[in-house]
Design a protein that fits this description.
heterodimer; A: 589 residues; mainly alpha; Clc chloride channel; CBS-domain; 3 domains; 64% helix; B: 377 residues; alpha/beta; D-Maltodextrin-Binding Protein, domain 2; 2 domains; eleven-stranded mixed β-sheet; 16 helices; 18% strand
């Protein structure tokens, strides 16, 4: 919609109607944000509570483990059995109830928002989310934010079904859900807003910005109502002591990039290993759970989200330096194993833990080598945590905002910012934008050059095929065709049988006007280029560019003719598609 | 987590509807029970200045108003003693003042009667009673009535210049040299040791649940081991400070306050205060249940709570009672900033986790004794 005065000039000055329309849309946008924000936030609170309840009952959380500290068998037995059985349950839930046979997560959300691909069924979404609750509840080394992002997207989609509202309602609803989920889980509304735009929507339109902000704030308010908690990650930090330390933060960021790439590659490699292993998909997570459980007997820090370990990493003297290296290496391997072998969960929380352990190690190393130039271990730990995470999720701005909202510490944010950007820069070159984008690439969706290409690669040209073209039947004489062609400018005609099956093509220039009694079959030529329902706009453009003829037929799997495409249809398809995207990205109301 | 608060609030709203009915019923019961209970109420309390403040604010005014005699029994606050006092079909006790942790444990064992929130009087001006209490004050077997704290106090004479102001300073013997008094028990010491590393208040018990957390805490205690003087009874810490045997000591905030009012130059470090709740609970099977309920209703009236707070520096759990707190009854000093739940103190408090205490009793004692034995050599 245009601004009011601009619009009124067009519509003969009926300003009342225009104002009414604007108010209607503003109210609607606010209601969409409020509705999705509320539902998502309450669901996310339930998700978190359920996971922590399971953690307590299944002896995953530190507080529950300490109660059975004396028992010789119970704790070790539970440590091995709980993740294994959790794995089996997860495998069963994913294979039986999710149509994709895997956990749904941020890549699926990105795909929906970017190229408007159809959402997975509600049943699949619920099953995947419950599988994530089981995985996290049983202490799998996976994150909780990925499943929450999907949960937000799924609930947002419920609203998108009411098509009464606005153009582009789909991505807006998804965005609202995601923002509310992040705002609730982190107690961080700005991070929710920025994450949604940076990772999911990847553009900033006022039309989307307003409802997403409303949803984000709603999530935050509801989270406050249920958990009266302080900032999630309070750190005592009085500022960077020496200006040279910013150089150390930059180097730390670069090192984190390498570690992040290693982490992401391990996840991809582990998934490959799982698919080649020949183990039934339902049993794969159980195997990962068993290995995790056995490792956790010696290193309990690798179980679950590791909230306590995250805190210990900011305390000087909590770990030996060698212990830090051991722990972040094991956590990385175990997480790759858990995700690759099909536990349902994200990468964000494990990335935080690996990053902070590495940061603590780096900080200790700096303190050891240059004790005079060192402010405190906390700042190095937090820089490491955010630098690694940012490279994994491909969202520098979000991570910087998260540091700010989680620690409420300005100096710390400025320090972490330096590490984050260097990590992102390097990881982008070494690996790609994020783990999500690489996972999508493996499924055939390439977002490296933005979504324009992906959409052109994934929109079939058949939607734009022309329906007016010359048809003739095999058994007709050529003169019938000559008469038809006389009234049209077409240079070609499609030859079909009575079932509309494409048999060949006949060109105007091949017709000899002195011999028009012969049957069409005699002049018909084979089709040298032909599109089908899967041919995308970009494929069509590429092939048309080299094509000598006039139009290209489009057929379905049974070879029935669906229409024809010439270069002008392809250009039309191209501009129309891009124009739709630009309209979405610049929409105001 | 305020979910339980919400539940209580909703259930209390429901009960509000039935209130009139319940009251009518309890009056009938009261009439029937009175002759048997021979108009007396047996209450267990803690003795000392604290019991004294209760006598002035609750016991005597209640007896005067109702003619019911109150018999005081003293107890040491342990679950073992509660079991003894509450056992059998004819318990030796009707009502008890307990720490919340023990009350929760006693409730689970079925020693305490189910608490009926409708007996609480609403505050003046129509707010419903529970809304006037701190969140989570009411629980299955009682009502939280009072807040006390374990704190660190220091001798003002020992530090004329820079004064210690945080728990970290307690462990910093370079900056603030001198002996430290600590209870010969892991209580409070472990929390403070970990807090001194910069751990947020809300995460202390999670971290203490891990071996790494306990190791860190004991490492911190080891760093001041040679300067620790152990105390065992609550009356000792002010004495240790008065006689200059220590420059800082842990202790109960009410005890320090009592000596402050009598002129001892000590100051309290409120940062890291460890807050404990006291609750009123009715013994299961008592024949004087209705009288006990009447007493709880009386003893949680804002006016009476504020009266107690003018004698001792333990804070009431009712907002309207808090608003009535004025000056000390004898010294006429303003009382509010001596209370553990003053706004400026409570934001830096560790709230003692009764569940954690109950489940780690053995572990803490074992690790503590082991550490003591190791460091004494």
């Amino acid at each position: 919609m245009y601004p009011i005065d601009y619009y009124t000039a067009y519509t003969g000055g009926n300003i009342t109607i225009q104002i009414r329309a604007v108010i209607y849309k503003v109210v609607l946008i606010a209601l969409v944000g409020l509705g999705i924000g509320t539902i998502t936030s309450v669901t996310v609170v339930g998700f978190v509570e359920l996971v922590s309840w399971l953690n307590d009952k299944l002896l995953i959380s530190a507080k529950s483990r300490v109660q059975h500290e004396l028992s010789a068998y119970l704790l070790p037995a539970m440590t091995i059995l709980v993740p294994s059985i959790g794995g089996l349950l997860t495998g069963w839930m994913l294979q039986s109830f999710v149509e994709h046979k895997r956990a749904l997560g941020p890549p699926d959300v990105i795909l929906q928002a970017q190229i408007h691909s159809p959402a997975a069924s509600f049943k699949s979404g619920v099953a995947s989310s419950l599988a994530a609750v089981v995985s996290l509840g049983c202490g799998a080394s996976v994150g909780q934010y990925g499943p929450m992002v999907y949960l937000g997207c799924m609930l947002g989609n419920m609203f998108a079904r009411f098509k009464i509202l606005l153009p582009n309602i789909g991505p807006i609803c998804i965005g609202c859900g995601v923002a509310a989920a992040i705002a609730t889980a982190f107690n961080a509304p700005i991070a929710g807003l920025v994450f949604t735009h940076e990772v999911i929507l990847r553009h900033y339109s006022i039309q989307a910005f307003a409802p997403i902000t409303v949803a984000s704030v709603t999530g935050y308010v509801i989270a406050k109502l249920f958990f009266a908690r302080e900032a999630l990650f309070l750190v005592n930090f009085d500022g960077v002591g020496h200006s040279y330390e910013f150089l150390f933060f930059a180097i730390e960021g670069a090192l984190c990039a390498f570690l992040a790439v290693l982490f992401m590659r391990s996840i991809l490699a582990s998934a490959k290993l799982a698919s080649r292993s020949g183990i039934h998909k339902m049993l794969q997570p159980m195997l990962a759970g068993l290995i995790l459980g056995m490792l956790a007997l010696v290193f309990p820090d690798v179980l679950g989200i590791g909230r306590e370990t995250l805190r210990f990493a900011t305390i000087e003297g909590a770990f030996e330096m060698s212990e830090l290296v051991l722990l972040f290496s094991i956590k990385m391997l175990v997480t790759a194993l858990c995700i690759g072998f099909g536990f349902a969960g994200g990468v964000f929380s494990p990335a935080l833990l690996i990053g902070i352990l590495f940061g603590a190690w780096y900080g200790s190393a700096v303190a050891y080598l240059l004790p005079e130039y060192f402010s405190s271990i906390e700042v190095y730990a937090v820089c490491g945590m955010m630098a690694l995470t940012s490279a994994v999720i491909g969202a520098p701005l979000t991570t910087i905002i998260i540091v700010f909202e989680l620690t409420r510490n300005y100096d710390l944010t400025v320090a972490a910012m330096v590490s984050v950007v260097f990590s992102n820069l390097l990881a982008w070159h070494l690996f790609g934008r994020s783990l999500f984008d690489r996972q999508l690439l493996a499924r055939g969706f390439d977002f490296v050059a933005g979504r324009d290409h992906t959409i052109l690669d994934n929109t079939p040209i058949v939607n734009f095929a022309r329906q007016s073209y010359q048809v003739c039947y095999m058994d007709e004489p050529v003169k019938v065709l000559v008469e038809r062609l006389a009234t049209h400018s077409n240079a070609q005609a499609m030859v079909v049988n009575r079932n509309n099956t494409l048999l060949g093509i006949i060109r105007r220039r091949d017709i000899n006007h002195s011999a028009t009694d012969i049957p069409i079959a005699a002049l018909m030529q084979n089709v040298d280029l032909c599109f089908d329902q899967t041919t995308s706009i970009s494929q069509a453009m590429l092939q048309l560019h080299r094509y000598k003829g006039d139009v290209v037929p489009v057929i379905d799997v049974k070879k029935s003719l669906l229409g024809v495409v010439s270069e002008s249809e392809a250009i039309q398809a191209y501009t129309q598609t891009l124009q739709n995207l630009r309209e979405e990205e610049n929409a105001v109301l | 987590m305020q979910f339980s608060r919400l539940c209580w609030y909703l259930s209390s709203l429901l009960l509000l509807g039935m209130n009139i009915n319940l009251n009518a019923e309890s009056q009938m019961q009261s009439a029937a029970a009175t002759p048997q209970s021979s108009q007396s109420l047996r209450i267990a309390s803690w003795g000392g200045a604290y019991e004294n403040s209760q006598r002035i604010a609750y016991f005597e005014p209640f007896s005067q108003a109702t003619g019911i005699a109150i018999e005081i029994v003293q107890h040491n606050g342990t679950l073992a003693q509660l079991r003894q006092l509450a056992k059998g079909s004819e318990p030796q006790l009707d009502l008890i003042d307990l720490s919340k942790g023990v009350a929760i444990a006693g409730c689970k064992e079925g020693l305490l009667a189910r608490f009926d929130i409708s007996i609480l009087a609403p505050a003046e001006g129509a707010t419903h009673a529970l809304e006037d209490f701190y969140p989570d004050s009411a629980f299955e077997c009682g009502i939280t009535q009072l807040i006390s704290a374990i704190v660190i106090a220091f001798d003002d004479r020992a530090f004329p210049g820079d004064k210690p102001s945080s728990v970290s300073d307690f462990f910093d013997t370079n900056k603030f040299p001198g002996k430290r008094g600590l209870r010969r028990d892991p209580e409070a010491a472990l929390e403070w040791a970990l807090l001194s590393y910069g751990v947020p208040y809300g995460q202390i018990y999670d971290l203490l649940s891990t071996k790494r957390g306990l190791d860190l805490a004991f490492a911190r205690l080891s760093s001041i081991r040679e300067d620790i003087i152990w105390w065992e009874r609550g009356s000792e810490p002010p004495e240790l400070l008065a006689t200059k045997k220590v420059v800082m000591s842990s202790g109960y905030n009410g005890r320090f306050f009592d000596r402050q009012m009598k002129g001892l130059p000590v100051s309290i470090i409120w940062q890291g205060e460890i807050i404990e709740y006291a609750v009123w609970s009715i013994i299961k099977g008592t024949k004087a249940r209705t009288i006990a309920e009447d007493f709880i209703r009386f003893a949680t009236l804002p006016k009476q709570m504020a009266l107690q707070a003018s004698h001792i520096s333990y804070g009431p759990t009712r907002y309207s009672a808090w608003r009535k707190i004025g000056l000390h009854a004898v010294t006429k000093q303003p009382m509010r900033n001596h209370m553990p739940n003053a706004v400026e103190h409570i934001s830096q408090a560790i709230v003692k986790d009764p569940q954690w205490y109950a489940s780690t009793e053995e572990l803490r004692q074992r690790r503590f004794e082991k550490w003591l034995a190791k460091t004494q050599n």
